[in-house]
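Deliverable D5.2: sample structural annotation.
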Amino acid sequence: MATDSERFFQEWPARMAKAKAAAGDAVKGFGALFASVMKDGALTLREKELIALGIGIALRCEPCINLHVQKCLEAGATREQIIDAASVAVMMQGGPCFTYLPKVVEAIEAVQQQPK
């Protein structure tokens, strides 16, 4: 049986394509903002993705968790670095974020099982 994260990664491309078609310019604008921020600067892309993951956890945003775990791994973050960043989110936000640590681990495993 597929996990929530595995289903997310299977369904996300089609869901995002529909959203892009419906939202048009708003999606393009967000994409431009994302591209301008999420690149090496004073912080590396890997560091920025780890920060984004922590914020996603603090906001309890499951799509954010899945996507930023994937982006963290693509940017070269290790499983240990991802868990460490997730732990910082828990420390800052408390118990409710702690319940999202299993989602982080699930997302790591789902990304690592995807065909390359």
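Annotation notes: DSSP finds seven helices and no strands in the chain. Residues 44-116 form a domain with the AhpD-like fold (CATH 1.20.1290.10).
The annotation will be released with the project's public dataset once the embargo ends.
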